[in-house]
Write a structure and sequence with these properties.
2 copies of one chain form a homodimer. With 338 residues, chain A is of the alpha/beta class. Chain A has 13 helices and 12 strands. Chain A has a 6-stranded parallel sheet with strand order 2-1-3-4-5-11, with helices on both faces. Chain A binds a DNA duplex (30 and 30 nucleotides) through helix 2 and helix 4. Chains A, B: GO terms for molecular function: DNA-binding transcription factor activity; transcription cis-regulatory region binding.
Chain lengths: 338, 338
DNA sequence: TGGCGCACCGTGAACGTTCACGGCCGTCCC
DNA sequence: GGGACGGCCGTGAACGTTCACGGTGCGCCA
């Protein structure tokens, strides 16, 4: 038996096989300088003790490798999934690892999860996390300071504790989208907002309307809903109810926009004939709904790359990276829904 | 400067601040027994040296924590995303961590990625990986043996090296789906297969047709395509071309089924009036396409739980778990497409 | 028969951190 | 004035593994 309560170590195996640590290492790692008989004895002992090398100890001697945590609320949301995919690939490109943390709906579970994750990472990236989610972070992380592990927001809102932030160029992006809608003859353009996200998108929209003499006579409809397909559906129903003459909708994100598409179909409003729909995010799924969704696309590969660059500089102690907000452009992808 | 080439350590900070290791630990971890002045000096030194505690060393003394790798080909595929979400949550429930590995399309990059991931995990779970993907694993892992790290397939095909496997009960699942189609009056039922996946689903389908006198007069159409929405679209086009009298299609998975839905819409075949469509997987997105997709749903939470159970037993050295194939049931969720 | 080389194996040391303990100095109280 | 105590700090040891080195015994050849 192993003498300590936990798993068995290499010396347990060595003792059982009647050899030294080093011989165990040699036998189990297919190195030279071990006789066949000894190797067999060691392997037998390792199996009997169910020996598993301690990864932490191995990493310790083999030099540090970098691990970055990715915190999100729901990976089954395709936006987060595509972002995670991009981050995983970009991280692999640099030899980093990404630790996944899907905190889900339960706050207390999420808190425990984050506390556990934090012990294993060198930095944390967050996406779609609002103030509530930030509060779930362990107090020691929140406090931050000199030793605090770098926190980077991949999008979404600002927060005092953040060491860096990637913001989307919603300004020119939304302007381009609205230009496009106007160019195709739309005049009653609504904006469907997220009820939890930041309100910068709505602000740009409003400014555009005012700047282009597009303000609704009876007041621009103010619709916002949950950031989900259901939310988009409900918002669309609200919208046509409150503004029957709407002929275009710019939607906070693609997921909600897909809900809008579905609701329009239910309400027998043809897209794009009766009403045009533009989403934001550039999700792949947008190409497969009917009609295919016009969208303001985010290059997630670029976003991931920039994020890792910032983290790299942060971890390297480059103070220039702290607090900086990198800007990512949006590109309008016109498909069938406009 | 740190004397070693890499990052600075706690003793570098200690030397610079003119204190001992332990005092640095105390100062940086908000412990007692440090004077304010000393604490400030230590923090300053840590900042100047950009000190970051070595996670491996910390984990080493604080006892091992379990990390399981999740290997998949493309997280932007919603099936993998939902699986990853479930696994992340189930793992968190047990205090385990999930290391994400989206290997993407590039074989060589994938190989490097896997080699890198393997150094940090205690076990590997795979999903949707065929023989080709398995070959990307490092030779040392493939060889396996006593010390080999446990490999578990979350679904998909068998492989010699696998220590465990979770199989879906396609038998009764597909039977239920076909029963449902027959009960709603369908007689020309096609099956759209994956060109890369295992062929057990098709076999069940064929046996059912033969057992229920549903074999097509001119031969059952054999359609298979890539496991993607595009693949589903192409398959559907093929299908209506080769079998214009088709009135139902059972599709290998939901992602392909969504493609089928889209193609049917393009071909002006109404779903479900002209042709019924049933997918497999139970993806959330199926509720948001039009019409909503009837599907054979997999409980991904259960799948993840079972997977971690198997890994737990495997890591605990329970030989009963090896080679065992746990079975997960499928439940038919009838929505609008049938 | 001495020496050389090879096959096989063992012993510190190191990785970087935390824990348990012990030491020193000043203050306060009896 | 001596003992107790508290604030502050340092020193081994330990976590589990691998690396670099050194050692032993045996065969082979000059």
């Amino acid at each position: 038996m192993a003498k300590n309560s936990g798993a068995s170590t290499i010396v347990d195996v060595a003792e059982r096989a009647g050899v030294s640590r080093q011989t165990v290492t040699r036998a189990l790692n297919d190195m030279v300088d071990v006789s066949a008989a000894t190797r067999a004895r060691v392997i037998a002992a390792a199996m009997e003790l169910n020996y598993r090398p301690n990864r932490a100890a191995q990493n310790m001697v083999h030099g540090r490798r970098r691990t970055v945590g990715l915190v999100l609320e729901d990976l089954s949301n395709p936006y987060f999934a595509e972002l995670a995919s991009a981050l995983s690939r970009a991280a692999a490109e640099r030899g980093w690892s990404v630790l996944l943390c899907d905190i889900g709906g339960d706050r207390e579970k999420g808190r425990a999860q984050l506390a556990s994750i934090v012990a294993g990472v060198d930095a944390l990236t967050l996406t779609g996390c609002n103030q509530d989610t930030m509060d779930l972070l362990p107090e020691a992380v929140l406090r931050g300071g000199a030793l605090g592990l770098p926190l980077l927001m991949l999008d979404g809102a600002d927060h005092a504790r953040l060491n860096g932030r990637i913001v989307l160029d919603v300004d020119s992006g939304i302007t381009a989208a609205l230009d496009h809608l106007v160019a195709t003859g739309r005049r009653r353009i609504a904006f469907i907002d997220s009820e939890s996200g930041p309100d910068d998108r709505r602000k740009v929209y409003r400014a555009y309307l005012e700047g282009h003499d597009l303000v609704w006579p009876a007041g621009t409809p103010e619709i916002s809903a949950e950031e989900s397909i259901e939310g988009g559906m409900e918002a669309a129903e609200q919208l046509v109810l409150r503004a029957p003459d709407v002929d275009a909708a710019l939607v906070y994100n693609d997921v909600m926009a897909i809900g809008v598409l579905k609701a329009m179909s239910r309400l027998h409003r043809r897209v794009p004939e009766d009403v045009a729909v533009v989403g934001i995010d550039g999700l792949q799924i947008g190409r497969f709904v009917t009609p295919e969704l016009t969208t303001l696309s985010i290059d997630k590969g670029e976003l991931a790359d920039v994020a890792l660059d910032v983290l790299d500089r942060l971890l390297a102690g480059n103070p220039a990276a702290a607090g900086e907000a990198k800007v990512i452009g949006l590109s309008l992808v016109v498909r069938e829904s406009t």
